[in-house]
Amino acid sequence: MQRVAIKGIGQTPVREHWDMAVHNLAVDAARAALDDAGIDKVDAIFLGNMTSDALNKQHHLATKVADYLGMRGVETVKLEAACGSGAAAVRQGMLAIAGGMMDAVLVVGVEKMTDSKGAETTRALATAADADYEVIHGVTFVGLNALVMQRYMHTYGYVQADFAPFALNAHANGANNPNALFREPISLRTYERGRAVAEPITLFDASPIGDGAAAVVLVSAEKAPDAVKILGSASSIDTLAVHDREDPLWLKAAEISTRKAMAQAGVTHDDIDIFELHDAFSVMAALSLESSGFVEPGQGVPFAQSGAIFPNGGLPIQTMGGLKARGHPVGATGVYQIVEATQQMRGTAGDAQIDGVEIAMTQNIGGSGATIVTHILGK
Fold this sequence. Notes:
Layout: E1 4-11, H1 22-37, E2 44-48, H2 52-55, H3 61-68, E3 75-79, H4 85-98, E4 104-111, H5 118-126, H6 141-156, H7 164-174, H8 188-192, E5 196-198, E6 201-202, E7 212-220, E8 228-237, H9 252-265, E9 274-276, H10 282-291, H11 300-305, H12 322-326, H13 333-346, E10 359-366, E11 371-378
Parallel strand pairs: 2-3, 2-4, 9-10
Antiparallel strand pairs: 1-7, 1-8, 4-7, 5-6, 8-11, 10-11
């Protein structure tokens, strides 16, 4: 199998894009990536999206995007893995190049969420959970994560305020990212005064939805020797329902996908310079650090409190705001992570730049840990 390079990247700001349809957002990000790559034709388009059918009344979205890009005749497919759809699309695009089946592919992640009423969006997001054994009881997606956070606090003896560093870091970094939805740092006092969303999750423990699209152009490393490379890629699943897991505080899919991706890349935890994790909720950031093997179980919170996750720490995370400050247009998030890690490795992250990034890890989670896709990028 041949190594894969990220030849082009593109993104739209995460906003409430009232004047744009879902396919318009995808086209804008795609054209930016194609321009960055210096090409105008690809063999296929892989599109990650979760809710276009429910919220935008549009199936067949990848084909519509290709049509509006003027790429009639190209192969297209839409991939859905809940909030992990973006990274799942990147992985499929990578496999097409790595296997020699295609010379160039365009991967787009897109979501248009703010035109819908809150209740409608909540119902759409809840479909990432088990319809028969979780959603049927009226639980929302934030409600499930609140139960996990309660269990974490009970097991390890933490209080809600102990999770503050995750939010403070995200908002401070998002202030340096022009594409972030929230571009203002927050204080500890602001965090502590956040209104409850689902006890113990407050407003500052939960990522916001938004409209946005991100895109990458993938080619073989031979054709782009100086580009950032995908050194490792792996996807794994756990049970869909949280209550079916051996341990609700362990993301088995993160453990497996991290181990496989690192083995492919030939790197260890000590080699990772930045980690763009899936901080949809503060507790998920802690679980990701633990389940991916960076810290022991229960140590994600004190690791954050030590300052290790901040830009000058040992393992910077959420370097451009993460889901919490950049925003979480769910099907696009995994591609945003790849784009932002590529910016860091190119040295083009602007005021959000972390010095000396040689190896980056991204991790995109679908559902409450049911699907997890991990990528390792290197120069």
